[in-house]
Amino acid sequence: MRWILLLLLLLNTFYYVWHQQQAPLRGKEVAPANAYQSVRTDIRLLSETDAPQSRSEPSAIAEAPVPDAAVCLFLGSFEEEAKAKVVEQRLLSLDIQAEVRGVDAAAGVEYWVYLPPLASRQASLRQLRELQARRIDSYIITQGELANGISLGIFPRNDSANSVRQRLRDVGYEPQVRELSRAHRSFWVRVAPESRRLADEFLLGRLAGDFAGLQHQLMPCEGVALLQ
What we know:
Elements: H1 2-22, H2 33-41, E1 71-78, H3 81-93, E2 98-115, H4 121-133, E3 139-140, E4 150-155, H5 158-170, E5 176-191, H6 201-210, E6 215-220, E7 226-227
Antiparallel strand pairs: 1-5, 1-6, 2-4, 2-5, 2-7, 3-4
């Protein structure tokens, strides 16, 4: 019985070996190279990916607003400095910083007829005596670039100046005409910026009642031609 089992076992072993030798060989399937390439291109390192954009920032840094020039309150105008001083003292008594300033404003043009200086003062004085002998109003100029010249008058109109110049040319002189800017000086009381809030509407109304024609204006403290 034992030999029969061994024989069957050997037959089974022999059959298995024979069957394996008769089975066709199959190669291992390998994916094409381009498949690996396509997969590789789909793989990206985290460092290669675009970093998430930060919060939007303005394209240009906004500049800090430039503070406006200090603005002062001006009260005026006064033809006489003494009247402006009265307003100044009244404001100072109320602890309001104020000061009087003189303002020269252009008020038109005048025309000056004159004879240029000669070679010496003595020559200019001789010429002056000649003019006065002809009863022509004339004065020696004592200072400035035209010192020792002779002034023949200042006229508000150009045609008047040209008429005088022509009459002098007719008697042998060569006068010249120069334009002069005529300035008008008025006086204003300037209230400092730190005290401007103290000069309220009530106070301005009282000052306007006490000083006829008083006006108030807001202007840059150094933006007007002010003279001490």
